[in-house]
Design a protein that fits this description.
Elements lengths: L10 E5 L3 H10 L4 E5 L2 H10 L4 E5 L5 H10 L4 E5 L5 H10 L3 E4 L6 H10 L6 H7 L1 H8 L8 H12 L6 H8 L6
Parallel strand pairs: 1-2, 1-3, 3-4, 4-5
Length: 182
């Protein structure tokens, strides 16, 4: 299937407490069926009632990490988007809880190509590409040495270097760290 058509007809859940963000997502993903939720309760209802090709979750205002746990348990590839909660800690938590990717809202214009990459990977982690692509943005926001300051990211980058498509780093990391209830 051609990359430009890979999202065509996909059922996507977008969760954000800001209606303008949901409207932007809907515009960017023309050709997809988008379910929109502005609060935790309606998002949870959607997650329990439908099978999604992909889920897009904000962190703040909707209890996104709890929703991430639900989406991952249902095996929905889930991308975190955030503005106010953009931090190494939220990035780490998203990885540990099983998100396949992470996109700062300031890069929302790239959402369509970002999701095309996620869908083409058939739900496998895109963390290696995300960290490479957003390295400049993260370094500006977190400081040039943000990964070196954090033991988790040092280990995670080593895992990414060793990982294969059949055993992505997030899956092998999660297997070793099953008690992630943060």
């Amino acid at each position: 299937m051609a990359k430009e058509n890979i999202l065509e007809g996909k059922l996507i859940l977008a969760v954000d407490d800001e209606m303008d963000i949901l409207s932007t997502i809907e515009e960017l993903l023309e050709g997809c069926t988008i379910h929109k939720a502005t609060n935790h309760y309606s998002a949870q209802q959607y997650l329990q009632s439908y099978n999604y090709s992909i889920v897009i979750l904000d962190i703040m205002g909707v209890d996104g990490f709890t929703l991430l746990r639900i989406a991952v348990a249902k095996k929905f590839p889930t991308v975190i988007i955030t503005a106010h909660a953009l931090s190494p800690e939220s990035l780490e938590k998203a990885i540990k809880l099983g998100a396949v990717s992470f996109l700062p809202k300031e890069a929302l214009a790239e959402l369509k190509s970002h999701l095309e990459d996620v869908i083409s990977r058939e739900g496998r982690s895109a963390w290696k590409e995300v960290l490479e692509k957003l390295q400049g943005l993260f370094s500006r926001r977190f400081g040039a040495d943000w990964k070196e300051k954090n033991e988790f990211f040092k280990e995670f980058e080593e895992e990414l270097k060793k990982s294969t498509d059949s055993e992505p780093a997030t899956r092998s990391y999660a297997k070793r760290n099953k008690n992630l209830k943060k």
